[in-house]
Amino acid sequence: MRETDARGRAELPHEDVCAGEHGTRARCLPESWMWDVFHPDGSLRDIRVLDTTRGEWIAVLDRLRAVADETEVEHPYPQLDPAHPAFTDLFRLWVDDPEGEASAFSFRARFGAVWFFALPCFEEEIEFSVWPEDVLNGAGVAAVLRFLVEIATASERRALLTGEIVRYDPEMPTLISYDPVTGLTSHI
After folding, report:
1. Is 21 helix (H, G, I), strand (E, B) or coil?
2. Separation between Cα atoms, residue 34 and residue 78, nearest integer Å
């Protein structure tokens, strides 16, 4: 189990390792090469968790609401609290309502200076996006790594950073990942 700080955020240890292309292991927090992953090329970077359920989505959003520096929710449902709806109710309306998928909701979380945003499309895949130009330095990379740890910890599944795609494609390389079972951060 991960150590947490006073706000309940997972501590990211300095001993996390990554496997290099030849199987070597090295420190992986945040390294200068990681900035290259965020080189602004006009496309977003996606952070995703695969094979999820509604319960895992709710656990991730609840955790982010508790540990992020700031969060925002926008939704079209007048019967819910406009700023802080219960995520169980939000998903019930979005998924169970026949017109729910047409009237999507959005969620944003800020870690440091970096905003992560979700426009949920599929229950079975948690997906957040981040603008590469928001990841300007080591502090931005550290925010992305913390976000990976938080959503992996909440979902109890591996979190992946990839290029922007609508649905996960195994042919798309994973740029950085975090596995909450092993506690390891890896990269290509």
Report:
1. coil
2. 42
